Automatic annotation (TrEMBL), chain A:
It is found in: Cell membrane. One of its GO terms (molecular function) is transmembrane transporter activity. The keyword Nucleus does not apply. It comes from Paenibacillus oryzae. The chain crosses the membrane at residues 7-25, 45-76, 88-112, 118-140, 161-180, 211-233, 245-271, 291-311. InterPro entries: ABC_transp_permease. This is Sugar ABC transporter permease YjfF. Its main location: membrane. Keywords: Cell membrane, Membrane, Transmembrane, Transmembrane helix. The keyword Transcription regulation does not apply. CDD domains: TM_PBP1_transp_AraH_like (cd06579). It is a multi-pass membrane protein. GO terms for cellular component: plasma membrane.
Automatic annotation (TrEMBL), chain B:
The keyword Transmembrane applies. The chain crosses the membrane at residues 6-22, 43-62, 68-86, 93-111, 166-185, 215-234, 246-263, 270-292, 298-315. This is Sugar ABC transporter permease. Signal peptide: none annotated. It holds the Pfam family BPD_transp_2. The keyword Transmembrane helix applies. It comes from Paenibacillus oryzae. Keywords: Cell membrane, Membrane, Transmembrane, Transmembrane helix. One of its GO terms (cellular component) is plasma membrane. It is a multi-pass membrane protein. InterPro entries: ABC_transp_permease. GO terms for molecular function: transmembrane transporter activity.
Length: 328, 341
């Protein structure tokens, strides 16, 4: 028997399967394990960002700064590498910076009770601005380690391959899955998103959880930035513009409630894959232009938000509360 | 309690004072080719689209909503108007330009209605509901222009964004009319009170006999229209439509202007004059950064700190933290005495 709460995630998976099968029938060469793996290769950074975003959204917040943090990470990495730093120091440093950046935003959100939307918006401006302060040009990376990682193909049984970035992304996914469902931090995050006041009254560590969630998102963004650096082999202030929207879209398509308290990481994984499939189909079609991606993602967003509404509204009372806004 | 315009006006005055000290010629206004020129005029002229979008955004935020799609609407209306004109045989004909303007504004109303329907009709959170159009909107704009940057050669259309009337840029008059209409509608009729009431408590307003949903939809309609006009000004100023970059970051600047103007994001109160000053502050900041020869990219960093400081000042818990620290430092025994009194 299917549980009502699992419905949205099954819809997401079914949609992904349908799109992939439809693509396979329509285009020759679409149905192969490598096309599937390419979805991971091309969207590894998006998956990592979306995982962090999932935690933030489940906790009832939102993080608009992720795209800018990615850009800042590529910028700092490429500048430091150019100055002759070793990747052994650069990568931990940018990850730490991401962690601190997210933590600072979380602290401001929690202690001064400012809406996460505005605080992370300021974070977005700040990170993007700092990129330009470092340099307004593209800085290419030709460090041996980075090019090696970028070009390494991990061959799977059957002759297909994935990149190292995919392995990182899957590792993050596994860790996040464990964190969400088998640790106190995960449970606290769900409780916090369900109702903050109740969480306080229950004696849950709200401050620690909230700041932790944003720290995790900052860390994921920085890690995605590192992966993005592998992918692009350059640092640029205009990298990853609009990535926050892609990440939020992936989370919503994955069935996570934007009001917080409900959602699954597995859904986010498929949300990312669906975006990848749309791009792949459009590139296979050839005649369709790239802007159709945005329109289709917008339509899917609409469809899934409507679906959420259908599954979450229980009666006239509930609807009134929903209209009243959850921030009271 | 200070007047609600105290902080915005102080901030703007400080910025202008800084410019005066840095370069006195900042305030000089010359007449060239029968038109006034100067940094102050530039601020008004280039700030016009932002002021318009921010005025619309104010009313939406007053209903406890938010409209993230304004940047996309700016791009779509610009694309729509330019496409209509470029298809015509005589680009300069007044009829064609009028039709383009009407089509573009009609489209912007439609998009506003869509947002309003999602928020009030279906009951989706405003951030999310408008996010849909924000994501899809740039795609739609590129669909209209077929992915190209359309350039026009239409003097009549260019007049909207770059023409001048009574020696002042025409766009300033558009802003004045929209601002005047908004103030009249909200402060001289009951609509303003309805909006604030809905922003405070939609359910209570409905029980008190206000059509909460209609008020919300009206706010989004107005916001869409304002964004549409801004789109016309922006595209006509450069005589081209760029689906990808027109109106980029406008939603953020507009929200920032509203917040600086003293309107709380929690809804229920709004200050249109504050918003206009907020938009002027942002534009002055941008101009100032150009004038003092710092690389313009640093604007974003400055903006980030302005957002943060303004929000911190607005935040109750931050003020309490500051005040209590100050008090305990000055009067350590105060708490004791009140307790025993």
């Amino acid at each position: 028997m299917l549980k009502r709460q699992h419905m949205p995630i099954f819809v997401t998976i079914a949609l992904f399967a349908f799109m992939f099968i439809a693509g396979s029938f329509r285009y020759t060469g679409f149905f192969s394990a490598q096309v599937l793996l390419n979805l991971f290769i091309d969207n590894a950074f998006l998956l990592i960002v979306a995982i962090g975003m999932t935690f933030v959204i489940i906790s009832g917040g939102i993080d608009l700064s992720v795209g800018s943090v990615i850009a800042l990470t590529t910028m700092i990495s490429s500048t430091l590498l150019q100055d002759g730093w070793s990747p052994v120091f650069v990568i931990p440093l940018v990850l730490l910076l991401g962690l601190l950046f997210g933590g600072a935003m979380g602290a401001i959100i929690h202690y001064f009770k400012i809406q996460p939307f505005i605080v992370t918006l300021a974070g977005m401006f700040l990170a993007r601005g700092l990129c330009y302060v470092i340099s307004t040009n593209t800085i290419t990376i030709n460090h041996a380690f980075y090019t090696a990682v970028a070009q390494t193909k991990v061959t799977l049984p059957g002759g297909n391959f994935v990149s190292i970035s995919v392995l990182i992304a899957l590792l993050v996914f596994a860790a996040a899955f464990y964190m969400a469902h088998y640790t106190r931090f995960g449970r606290n995050t769900y409780a916090l998103g369900g109702n903050e006041q109740s969480s306080v009254l229950m004696g849950l560590p709200v401050a620690r959880t909230k700041i932790g969630v944003y720290m995790f998102s900052g860390f994921c963004s920085a890690l995605a930035g590192v992966v993005f650096t592998f992918y692009m082999l350059s640092g640029y202030g205009l990298h990853a513009i609009g990535m926050e929207l892609d990440a939020i879209a992936a989370v919503v398509i994955g069935g996570t409630l934007l009001t917080g308290g409900f959602g699954y990481l597995a859904g986010t994984l498929f949300g990312v894959l669906i975006q990848g499939v749309i791009q792949t189909i459009i590139s296979f079609e050839g005649t369709l232009s790239s802007w159709w991606t945005r329109i289709v993602i917008g339509l899917l967003l609409f469809f899934f938000i409507l679906l959420q509404k259908l599954f979450s509204s229980r009666g006239p009372l509930q609807r009134n509360i929903a209209l009243d806004g959850k921030k009271d | 309690m200070k007047h609600h315009l105290f902080w915005p006006v102080t901030l703007l005055a400080l910025l202008l004072l800084f410019n005066l000290l840095y370069d006195p010629s900042f305030f000089s206004i010359k007449i060239r080719d029968g038109r006034l020129y100067g940094s102050l005029i530039d601020i008004l002229n280039f700030g016009a689209p932002l002021m318009l979008v921010a005025i619309g955004m104010t009313l939406v935020i007053a209903t406890k909503g938010i409209d993230l799609s304004v940047g996309s609407i700016v791009a779509i209306t610009g694309a729509m108007a330019c496409m209509t004109i470029s298809k015509g045989t005589d680009q300069n004909s007044l009829g064609l330009v009028a039709m383009a303007v009407i089509m573009a504004l009609g489209l912007s109303l439609l998009l506003g209605l869509w947002n309003g329907f999602l928020v009030a009709g279906i009951g989706i959170q405003p951030i999310i509901a408008t996010l849909i159009l924000m994501v899809a909107g740039r795609g739609i704009a590129q669909l209209i222009t077929n992915g190209q940057i359309i350039t026009l050669n239409s003097g009549n259309y260019k007049y909207i964004g770059a023409g001048d009337l009574f020696r002042l840029p025409f766009s300033i008059f558009i802003v004045a009319v929209v601002f005047g209409a908004a103030v009249l509608l909200t402060r001289r009729t009951a609509i303003g009170m309805f909006i604030e009431s809905v922003g405070n408590k939609p359910v209570a307003s409905r029980l008190a006999g206000i059509r909460a949903k209609s008020v919300m939809i009206a706010a989004y309609l107005f916001c869409g229209l304002c964004a549409g006009i801004a789109g016309l000004i922006l595209s006509s100023n450069v005589s081209s439509a760029d689906g990808n970059n027109a109106g980029l970051w406008y939603e953020l600047d507009a929200i920032l202007a509203v917040v600086i103007g003293g309107t709380s994001l929690n809804g229920g109160r709004f200050y249109l004059a504050g918003t206009v000053i907020g938009a002027l502050i942002i534009q002055t900041l941008t101009t100032t950064i150009y004038v003092i020869n710092v690389s313009p990219e640093i604007t974003l960093v400055v903006k980030a700190f302005v957002v943060l400081v303004v929000c911190l000042i607005q935040s109750e818990s931050f003020r309490q933290a500051i005040v209590s620290r100050w008090k305990t430092r000055r009067y350590p025994a105060e708490k004791e005495t009140t307790r025993h009194a």
